[in-house]
Design goal:
The protein has about 160 residues and is α+β, with helices and mostly antiparallel strands. The protein has six helices and four strands. The chain has one domain: Anti-proliferative protein, N-terminal domain (Actin, Chain A, domain 4), CATH 3.90.640.90. The chain is about 40% helix and about 15% strand. A four-stranded antiparallel β-sheet has the order 1-2-3-4. Helix 1 runs antiparallel to helix 2 and helix 2 crosses helix 4. The chain starts with a helix and ends in a 16-residue tail after the last helix. This is BTG1 protein.
């Protein structure tokens, strides 16, 4: 359980920062939310944490908001009296958070960049993959864009 403390704490702190940035929630409520979320994640991941094979169980540990509220975030929010409706107003409508041994990363929007929040080298000398540009990731969630802007070239075919 101690092995996943940093990863869980990083994930819970990230969701808490998103709520704080949205405003309207007191610091004491945010602290309680973070602690409740950490406890829910610890309990949920207890038998699904494999440091020797970090990708094993990754889908189970994925926290997801995609037109449905992730039940673990919903549970923690319920403990401080936040409804799912209110959460949807405060958090990005598309958020994926991966909590794996040695790495915590997230993506805002279906086609957003994957940004690494925490990474530590794996034992056994495996080198971690290079980090993407952290600045662009930080800017993305700070300014609240749901996904990067794209230029589309339209090609029409006439028969």
């Amino acid at each position: 359980a101690a092995a996943m403390r940093t990863e869980i704490s990083t994930a819970a702190a990230f969701v808490t920062r998103l709520l704080r940035a949205a405003g309207g929630i007191g610091e004491e409520q945010l602290r309680c939310f973070r602690e409740c979320l950490q406890e829910a994640l610890r309990e949920h991941y207890k038998h699904h944490w494999f440091p020797l094979v970090p990708s094993k169980g990754s889908g189970y540990r994925c926290i997801r908001i995609n037109h449905k509220m992730d039940p673990l975030i919903g549970k923690a929010a319920g403990m401080i009296g936040l409804s799912h409706e209110r959460l949807f107003q405060l958090l990005p409508s598309e958020l994926t958070l991966w909590v794996d041994p040695f790495e915590v990363s997230y993506r805002i929007g279906e086609d957003g960049s994957i940004c690494v929040l925490y990474e530590s080298p794996q034992p056994g000398g495996k080198t971690a993959k290079p980090l993407e540009s952290r600045t662009s990731c930080k800017e993305e969630w700070r300014i609240g864009r749901s996904s990067p802007s794209k230029n589309y070239n339209m090609m029409t075919v006439s028969s």
